[in-house]
Every structure is written in C-alpha cells, then in structure tokens.
Amino acid sequence: MSLRRLAPVSLVLVLSLNGCGSTALDVRYPEQGVNRALLASVAPRRVRIDHVVDRRLETARVGIKPGGGSDIVTSRPVADIVQEALDLEVTRNGHQVVSDRPEVVLRPVVEVFSLDAVQGYASWQYVGKVVITLSVADGRTGDTLLTRRYVGIRRRDVDKPDEDQWREVMDTALARAMHDLATDPDLVAALGASRPPPASAG
Amino acid sequence: MSQNGVGRDRSIVLVVVLLLISGCASAPTPGPTAHPFDEVRRLAIIVSGDSSFSVVGHNAEPGRTFDEILAWYPTQAWMRPLARILHKGINWALELGQTATISGRVDDISPRTVVAAAMAQKLRATGWFDEIRMLDREPPAEDPWREDALVRVTIPAWGFVRVREGDPDLLAGFADVRAYLTIPGTGISRWEGSQDVTAPEQFPIDTFRKDPDFARQQLVGVLERAGQRLANELMYARSAGR
Fold first, then answer.
1. What pLDDT digit, counting tens, does each position of B56-67 carry?
2. CATH number, domain A23-193
3. B127 to chain A: which residues are within 8 Å by CB?
4. Contacts of B25 in chain A (CB under 8 A)
5. Beta bridge partners of A16
6. In this predicted complex, what is the ipTM?
7. In B, residues 28-67, which contact A (CB 8 Å cutoff)?
8. CB distance A54 to B61 below 8 Å
9. B42-57+103-238: which CATH number, 2.60.120.590, 3.40.50.1820, 3.40.50.10610, 3.30.200.20?
C-alpha cells in the first residue's frame, strides 16, 4: 500500500481527532489527590456503592464546543467516572467497598455533569458543574439515613479554548463535590449510625 | 512499491495517530500544596484586605460591533488593538453601570463577616478543633489566648458573573476567596487555598435589579458557600499524605 493510498485514511483520522467530531475528555478524580478526611473519623465500615444512576437531562454530551458547535463528551460514561471517584474516596478513608453484607449502602445519582462556555471579546469563561445526590441507607434495615446533594463548580477564564482546560475545569468540579462529601459531618454521622446486617443462617 | 516502503508508510501513519491520541490523554493534575496539621486545635480566622463588588458580564457584543465597523476600513489591522481597548472600556463602563445599580442595594453586606462566620461554623461542626475564634486584626504577640494556627482569608472579588449565554443571559453570584494557614510566630505556612466559588442557581440580571432582597439573599448565600468551601478544603488537606 502506498503512502498516497493511506493519505485519505490519515486525513479522516486527523480530522476526526481535531475538532470535526465530538471532543472526548478524560475526566477523572485523581487518585494521588485523595486524602483521609472527616470520613475516616468513623470506624471502618463495609460499604456497598450501588451503580451510579445517571439522571441528567442530557446524557449524550457534557457541553458544546465553543464556536464549532460539536459536542464535548467524556471518554468514559459519566456514571463510571463518578463510581470510580466514590470508590476511591470511600476506600482511601479506610472503609471497605463490598458487594454483600454491607453495613452501609450508598445510592448515588448524577444530576448534573456539564461544561458551559461564555464568550467574551478576547477570552472565554468556562463553568464546570457536577451535582451528585447521595442517599445513605442502613445495611441491615435498608432505611434511608440521609440524602444529600453535593455540588462542585469550577469557573475559569482562559484566553484560548483548549481541551486540557476543559478537562481541568471538569476534574476540579468533580473534586470539589467529592471533597464536600468527604468532609460532611452529617454523612459521617450517618455512617456511624449504620449497623451490619445479621449473619445469614447456615 | 517494496515491502519496506509499505512498512515505512504504515509506521508514519501509526506515529501520526499515536501523537494525536497522546495529545488527548490527560496529564496528572498536581495536588494542592499541603502538609499535615493534625496538631492544630486552636484556630483564629482573620479576614483582611479589600473586597470589591462587581457585576462581571464578559460581554462580547461591543467588541463584535467594533469588528463590523472596522471591517470597512483598510486600516483595520493596526486599529484592532485600539478597538480592543475601546471594547474593554465600553464593557467596563457597562459593568460599572450594572455594578452601581445593584451594589447600592446590597452595600449593607459585609463579605468578611459572612465568609468568616460560615468558615468557622463549618470547622466547628467537625469537632476537630477545641476553639475557633474570628478576629478582625492580627492578634498581638502577647495575646494570652495564643492560637496554634491562624487562617488569613482575603476576598478579592464578589458579586454576580455571567455564567450562561442566552436571551436573556444568566448570572450567578460569585466570590473569589483565598486563605493561608500559618503557625504564629514562625512564619511557617502549612496550607493555602484559592477558591472561585459560584452559586449553583442562575438568573437573568433583571431578577437581581428588580428584587434587591433576592439579590442580597443570593450574595449572602454564595459568600457562605465560599466560607464553607474554604473550610472543606482546609479539612480535606488536614491529613494530606497520611
């Protein structure tokens, strides 16, 4: 195969990766930045984190590319990103993420995961927003102990649109929501109030 | 073409694709500068510095108008820097007008008091500190109370900011805050944080113009949120590295 015959293929690849298609952001909660926080002040618990429910009004994208109008998406499903963040936070704070016989059940719902751009004359302002609703249930009774909404917002002015900046805005918004969660005294109290389920007979 | 030629062509394409893909991958985000300060039990919060209220529009329209006018002149290129300055001037004047309209109705808000009180309340709720007090100035060296640490807070800017384009545009309350935790008498800084805090709710500017009580409520809310966010980030950094 000659280089001339490969050229169209290369062109399609280059165009698709450079703005003609949607832009995929690798948003994630950085593991190296996860600390033991207030969440670690309660005795270690067996925590089951239910599958994250994505309840956003628009799930196909997180934003629209400034100027071009093409979609900005995440490279992984938003529910997976939030699930990973919750796993990291709970584990780093000394609790055990389990699938059976939990003392605590976390039921997370993603309400918002969005990136907005406001155009100025010579600059752009990006606003990343993450809203996660978390219900905490007793592992034994299934009773809901607490329902909280954690909102992370990042606002940033930039001179020139750039994918790394979009990702940073979304990473930071997610991290702020997670930090609010990890330092929430009410969540800690709910974890402390939870009880293990009775051991199954036999 | 020889087999070697085909292999070379494929290699070139592969390198191009790999380079493009590698550009999309995320680089590790550096964590905040922080050291453990678990031993801090007595804390004082000092809010200082000037705080300016503003309505930030990030307006593009005046600039676009200038572009359209300048497009008719052959001297467009050299006039562009001038247009940029004029645009900024017009935006500044527009924002100043909006700021003056609203600020006259919310000038009884003390951002320092609201941020410090919200931060102190959030920190107290953790039970990690024996005492937290708010000061309006640096404590004297002979202060018998003598805190383990001082948190110096500044609020460089607060007000309303345009967060969504549309008809009408939507604005939200905002507060930009900074904080430094230092050990008194040592000059040692244990933590610093900077937060661009934005209210989750968004409204047209007319909502704030027509209802001063609502504007005040939104501003107090975002200032409280700023104090809580600083407290949360301080607590989150408290045991960093452990």
1. 876 655 444 444
2. 3.40.50.10610
3. 185
4. 26
5. none
6. 0.84
7. 28-29, 31-32, 58-60, 62-64
8. no
9. 3.40.50.10610
